[in-house]
From TrEMBL:
MF term (GO), any: guanyl-nucleotide exchange factor activity
Domain SEC7 positions: 54-145
SUPFAM superfamilies noted in UniProt: Sec7 domain (SSF48425)
Any one GO BP annotation for this protein: regulation of ARF protein signal transduction
Originating species: Pongo abelii (Sumatran orangutan)
Pfam families hit by this protein: Sec7
The entry's keywords: Coiled coil
Designated name of the protein: CYTH4 isoform 3
Coiled-coil annotated spans: 19-53
């Protein structure tokens, strides 16, 4: 007699009913497992789709940043306008100043041109730009070295 698969004739009617219930529960569990597998596969597909969309958005943003830098380096005012229009930069004076201070991919001469304009907004940006620098407790030579180092690193 095989204990794992007994012959139906060897089982009592109660055991046969219990065996049928067990088989039915097993079938239900296998179906539930398959449903869970399908749901998990759907979630992974959605994650992949989301990641692809996010990568696409990031690539688009990087492309817009590159275009904006080129525009800025050719005409600083138009470049800033482009960054603001494409929501890569807010029109806030402090944000513009920090953006210019970081100077990532921006021509230093173009930054100077923008900051040197006599428009009231540009003068406010210039003041905020100067405030971005840390000159506290430095003498003139040390402060100039900080500026020089900053310019060389950008």
């Amino acid at each position: 007699m095989d204990l794992c698969h007994p012959e139906p004739a060897e089982l009592s009617s109660g055991e046969t009913e219990e065996l049928q219930r067990i088989k039915w529960h097993r079938k239900q569990l296998l179906e539930d497992i398959q449903k869970l597998k399908d749901e998990i596969a759907d979630v992974f597909a959605q994650i992949d789709c989301f990641e692809s969309a996010e990568e696409s958005r990031m690539a688009q943003k990087e492309k817009e940043l590159c275009i904006g830098r080129k525009k800025f380096n050719m005409d600083p005012a138009k470049g800033i306008q482009y960054f603001i229009e494409h929501k890569l930069l807010t029109p806030d004076i402090q944000d513009i100043a920090r953006f210019l201070y970081k100077g990532e991919g921006l021509n230093k001469t173009a930054i100077g041109t923008y900051l040197g304009e006599r428009d009231p907004v540009n003068l406010q940006v210039l003041q905020a730009f100067v405030d971005c620098h840390e000159f506290a407790n430095l003498n003139l030579v040390q402060a100039l070295r900080v500026v020089k180092t900053k310019r060389e690193s950008v």
